[in-house]
């Protein structure tokens, strides 16, 4: 064989393996469904459902009349009138308010003491009890509304007393805090969409999962690895072709997901919340770029984990467990809100999470952060691929029985 | 021609192959006979460079497997113990895949593939997906896949395993054809009648060692037994694992 045809042969082996894997897996319904349907569409659908539930709840709470059981309503008719004006509907008193809130029979209960009127007339401070259970998240909006109404009523009455005594109301409040919220409309949205980066990682993961399992554990289970390795092609070339096939499926998944998010983004009523969400081309392009090295890394990791398994089913279990690893940065960042440090961008997964969050906030991502993120993940991907190549050289890998 | 010199391979404490040497010549069928677990498959796996021997040498058409494994694989057509086909591909696509891995030009590929499909009488199954193939159909596809690059040397690991009578007869005929074409055919079997009927030379392996390397006639003469079955039992030392 002469040198020219040898060269052709070398470049062809990689392409041959790649094309065969793509063709074979396009014929597998399970792979198709996972890579092109459930994987990429799960995120957008879940997001829409979650958002709708949250938004509806918030709006309902804020606008709808809020029934609150009031004990001793007859002692403070003016206060009750003020509450009514604020959209609160006082209902009949209940016997045991402490138990009622704990059992979620009522979100919040008010108790006005019998000496309210006497103390009021004497000008002494009086207490209105607001009974609630802070572990019931659902009740928080109601509690907030009741307390605010009571406080503003108190402030208003206080001001009137001062005016009656010939003093300026401002004497009672020498200092006030003026809140200046610097959150942009996009940043407020980002808080809500902090789960988005994980969806993208999950999509990439599910896009390549069945291929990764099939390419190692599957080959071994159906005993096709031994005949394959009898061909005059280096194992690393075979592996490279297989990894490329996994990556292409993952990228296809991610693209479908990005398009779906782009479409869904238009229908999310973010403006109602005073938020802004841009899932357009600029966003998708950057996400794709950020995810590229991660796609290679995940392909290598999945193949590696699957290669340890003796059977397809075993591999499926291992790879599913691996799926929990990408959740870590998301959980970490949502439970302890740490300030993003420069080095964090170089950590695979964490870097992507931070980068995507920044894009969502509308801050954009600067070249240094982008470079760190790509370089860090790329280095990890190279290591992952090398480790997988090393594993693929092992004699035991090919032996099925 | 395949030359094997003093091969050793151990898995932990178990010596699977413990000093195997023999030569398989061109234009001959060489049979590797031995009971189950004698080390036949491990020996063959070292031949087609799936495993590295702990010691010893494999030389195929003058190429040392340790020095250039890829070149050795190019000279070999292998039907391994594991026949795994890609079940979502048709028989034809399975053959094409291996042909392209060998770097065959497309025109040559089509000619060779169609010739093999004809020779193995598998026209009716060529365009079916291999999922659900019978054992015979699987072996035919695997053999076509292994011979697509027209190798000088052919290694078949227990080729008739699991085949019915008709498929076995067809396969034996096909092996005779390979021999007539001047190829070096090396196959393993634990079935004495098969080896006796087909082989020009018989290499008997037991407990990882070669215990005899003769023509069938010489084997009978050496053991003084007129019946081949008795001759084998005498050589191996027991009749365990041999099938008639």
TrEMBL record, chain A:
Coiled-coil stretches noted in the UniProt entry, renumbered to this chain: none
Name this polypeptide is given: ABC transporter permease
Transmembrane segments: 32-55, 189-213, 243-268, 288-309, 318-336, 372-392
Subcellular location: Membrane
Membrane recorded as keyword: yes
Naturally occurring in which organism (per UniProt): Dyella halodurans
Domain ABC-2 type transporter transmembrane residues, every copy: 41-384
Highest taxon of source: Bacteria
UniProtKB/TrEMBL annotation, chain B:
Keywords: ATP-binding, Nodulation, Nucleotide-binding, Transport
GO function term, MF aspect, one: ATP binding
Matching SUPFAM superfamilies: P-loop containing nucleoside triphosphate hydrolases (SSF52540)
Pfam family for this entry, one: ABC_tran
UniProt entry tagged with the keyword ATP-binding: yes
Span of domain ABC transporter: 2-232
CDD domains (alphabetical): ABC_NatA_sodium_exporter (cd03266)
PROSITE patterns recorded: ABC_TRANSPORTER_2
Protein family: Belongs to the ABC transporter superfamily.
Protein name: ATP-binding cassette domain-containing protein
Organism name: Dyella halodurans
């Amino acid at each position: 064989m002469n040198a020219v045809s040898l060269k052709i042969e070398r470049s062809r082996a990689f392409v041959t393996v790649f094309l065969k894997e793509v063709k074979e897996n396009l014929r597998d319904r399970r792979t198709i469904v996972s890579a092109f349907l459930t994987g990429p569409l799960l995120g957008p659908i879940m997001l829409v459902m979650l958002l709708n539930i949250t938004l509806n709840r918030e709006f309902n709470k804020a606008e709808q009349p809020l029934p609150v059981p009031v004990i001793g309503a007859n002692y403070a008719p003016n206060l009750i009138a003020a509450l009514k004006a604020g959209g609160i509907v006082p209902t009949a008193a209940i016997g045991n308010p402490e138990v009622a809130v704990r059992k979620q029979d009522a979100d919040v209960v008010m108790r006005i003491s019998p000496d309210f009127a006497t103390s009021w007339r004497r000008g002494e401070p009086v207490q209105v009890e607001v009974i609630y259970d802070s572990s019931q998240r659902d009740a928080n909006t109601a509690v907030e509304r009741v307390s605010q109404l009571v406080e503003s009523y108190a402030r208003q009455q206080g001001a009137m007393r001062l005016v009656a005594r010939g003093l300026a109301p401002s004497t009672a409040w020498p200092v006030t805090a003026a809140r200046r919220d610097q959150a942009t409309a996009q940043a407020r949205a980002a808080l809500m969409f902090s789960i988005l980066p994980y969806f993208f990682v999950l999509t990439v993961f599910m896009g390549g999962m069945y291929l990764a399992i099939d390419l190692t554990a599957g080959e071994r289970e159906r005993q096709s690895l031994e005949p394959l390795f009898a061909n005059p092609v280096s194992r690393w070339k075979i592996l490279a072709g297989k990894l490329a096939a996994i990556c292409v499926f993952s990228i296809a998944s991610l693209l479908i997901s990005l398009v779906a998010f782009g479409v869904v983004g238009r229908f999310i009523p973010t403006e109602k919340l005073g938020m802004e969400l841009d899932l357009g081309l600029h966003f998708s392009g950057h996400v794709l770029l950020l995810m590229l090295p991660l796609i290679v890394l995940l392909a290598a990791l999945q193949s590696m984990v699957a290669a340890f398994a003796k059977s397809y089913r075993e591999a499926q279990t291992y790879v599913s467990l691996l799926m929990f690893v990408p959740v870590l940065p998301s959980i970490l960042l949502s439970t302890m809100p740490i300030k993003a440090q420069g080095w964090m961008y170089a950590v695979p997964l964490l870097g992507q999470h931070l980068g995507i969050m920044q894009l969502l906030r509308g801050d954009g991502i600067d070249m240094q952060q982008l470079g760190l993120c790509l370089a860090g993940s790329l280095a990890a991907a190279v290591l992952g691929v090398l480790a997988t190549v090393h594993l693929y050289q092992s004699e035991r890998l090919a032996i099925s029985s | 021609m395949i030359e094997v010199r003093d091969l050793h391979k151990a898995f932990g404490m178990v010596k699977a192959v413990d000093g195997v040497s023999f030569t398989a010549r061109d234009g001959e069928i060489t049979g590797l006979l031995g009971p189950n677990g004698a080390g036949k498959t491990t020996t063959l796996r070292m031949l087609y460079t799936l495993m590295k021997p702990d010691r010893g040498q494999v030389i195929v058409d003058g190429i040392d497997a340790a020095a250039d494994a890829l070149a050795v694989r190019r000279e070999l057509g292998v039907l391994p113990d594991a026949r795994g086909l890609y079940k979502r591909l048709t028989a034809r696509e399975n053959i094409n895949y291996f042909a392209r891995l060998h770097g065959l030009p497309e025109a040559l590929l089509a000619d060779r593939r169609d010739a093999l499909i004809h020779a193995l009488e598998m026209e009716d199954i060529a365009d079916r997906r291999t999922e659900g193939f019978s054992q015979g159909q699987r072996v035919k596809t695997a053999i076509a896949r292994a011979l697509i690059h027209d190798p000088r040397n052919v290694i078949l690991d227990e080729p008739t395993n699991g085949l019915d009578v008709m498929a076995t007869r067809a396969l034996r005929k096909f092996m005779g054809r390979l021999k007539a074409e001047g190829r070096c055919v090396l196959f393993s079997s634990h079935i004495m009648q098969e080896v006796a009927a087909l082989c020009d030379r018989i290499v008997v392996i037991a407990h990882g060692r070669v215990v005899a390397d003769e023509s069938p006639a010489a084997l009978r003469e050496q053991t003084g037994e007129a019946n081949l079955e008795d001759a084998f039992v005498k050589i191996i030392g027991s009749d365990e694992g041999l099938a008639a």
